[in-house]
Amino acid sequence: MNSPVDVSCLCGKCDSCVIFNHSLCSIGSAEAMAQLNRISHRRTYPRGSIIQAQGEPVDLVGNVVEGVVKLSSTSIDGDGHVVGLLFPSDFFGRLYSEESRFSYEAATDVTLCAINRIAFERFLADHPAVEHEMHKAKLDELDAVREWSAIINGHTTMQRASTLIYVFSRRSENQTPQKGSNEPPIIHVPLGRRDIADFLGTTPETLSRNIQSLARSNIIRIIDPKHFELLDVAQLIRCSGESREDLNRIASI
Prior knowledge:
four-stranded antiparallel sheet, Arc Repressor Mutant, subunit A, 253 residues, 8 helices, single chain, alpha+beta, Jelly Rolls
């Protein structure tokens, strides 16, 4: 596991955490929060660094505070594939397992609220209400993965690309304008075209054609490869082949 750039104790700072109201922490009792403060630490990783490698012992779990984490899996023949993305407030790491099944890589500069796995498992045993919410969150995540699998297997590449851009518009940092602004929201795309194409089960060339088509239709405006201006969210939803409700459910997990 790579050493993080910075490590600082979170003790007493959870109330000011930017993801507090969007994570499991918000349902904990005062006693639970005090215990969580004692065992959690903030760790920062630069873009491209490996947080947890596939096959390594699982030492850390916790929440993404800032940035985007890329999950990938490498087959026996050495082929790697992007299998998931974690955004702020998402839980990272594998509980109740000695070995990591995936590689966790910082797709952007990433800040984690990290906890020793064994310590967090004890914490859950001490606080059944938090453990219950944890299990519920994981079941919701499993449902979202199944829905995403259906999209990948049953939708066109344009529908897949539109769905992912909508997810980025809801989950990525700084994707919305300042309150009261009439400017269209800016979507931050945390991955390169090759990784996105791999995640969507297509080629970079096909993905680029789909993005250019969305731009020609005035649904998005390409600022640079990592930033799009969202001009017409209703049309983006139509291009996805999904309902707004289904997209919001996928984006919220």
